[in-house]
Amino acid sequence: MLEKTKLKRIRLYTMEEDEIYLDICRAVFQYKAPITLLGALNSADIGALKQVLVNISPDVVLISIKDLGGDIIKELEQFRIDHPKIGIVLLLWGCNAQDIERLRRLALLKGVGGTAIFLKQPLDRMDWLCTAISAVSQGQFIIDASLAAYMFAGKPGYTFLKHFTPRELEILNLLANGYTNLAIAKALYIDIKTVEHHLNNMYGKLKTDYESVDKHLRVSMAKLYLDAIGDPARHENLIVRSSVNRM
Question: What is the pLDDT of residues 162-189, one digit of tens each?
Fold first, then answer.
């Protein structure tokens, strides 16, 4: 019998303005995910966060931002440059049209640590937050489907994104990050047959609108997605795995 592999615990530091939400996060991370919370900063000051990180080395920082005004995005960009190995999960309470392009640039900054940017979800999506933390600790790139529709509007590949529903965009995002069908189902808390159904619909749209796609529809769709979000450099390291042989 094979020995069970012990999951590596992810070292997390979080910056959150809402103290009540911090308490909830501590409880969830303790019982639902292999995450060790190193500490929490009740602030929105990126400079203060940098000072804290002089003495600790988290795998991921979870940053919740209520207001993107002032130089906050510029400070986040500098944080990514200064700490390329740390994964960043950015929770936004909201954003306006002026923030979108700067958020896109932030999302695409290079780093060993991954990046996830999405709107703050209600507490019943806390499991998805744990999934995002795990993903960025492995260098993956995740954008909330509702944000992607605005971030990449007007970009050369945006027409491709418009073909898909919000749920399909969630699946496509995970697929492009190398998730198997089973892993997608677990991440989104849906049945694997539902994932397969969505993928078959997506493949149908792809074959109808893109006659020159590669024979391997899964890979073609992932590459088109990466083109659409403006990061073709990721193609060289793109790994797309499938847990079922169904196209």
Answer: 778 777 887 888 888 788 899 888 877 7
Domain termination site, one of 119, 151, 183:
151
Beta strands 141-143 and 60-65, pairing class: unpaired
Same domain assignment for residues 135 and 182: no
- Extract the tokens encoding 131: 């999934």
Let me know: does 193 contact 184? Beta carbons within 8 Å.
Answer: no
Q: Does any domain span residue 166?
A: yes
Whether residue 188 lies inside any domain: the answer is: yes
Q: What is the pTM of this model?
A: 0.64
- First-to-final CA distance of the chain: 34
Question: How many other C-beta atoms can be found within 10 angstroms of the C-beta atom of residue 77?
Answer: 15
Contact 65, 93 (CB under 8 A): yes
- Token pair 């069970």 is found at 4
Query: 229 is in which domain, residue-wise?
Result: 158-237
R_g over Cα of the chain: 18
pLDDT digits (tens, 9 = 90+) for 34-68: 888 888 888 888 888 888 888 898 999 999 888 77
Query: Around Cβ 241, how many Cβ atoms within 10 Å?
Result: 12
DSSP 8-state assignment for residue 86:
S
Cβ-count burial of 61 within 10 angstroms (0-12 exposed, 13-18 middle, 19+ buried)? Answer: buried
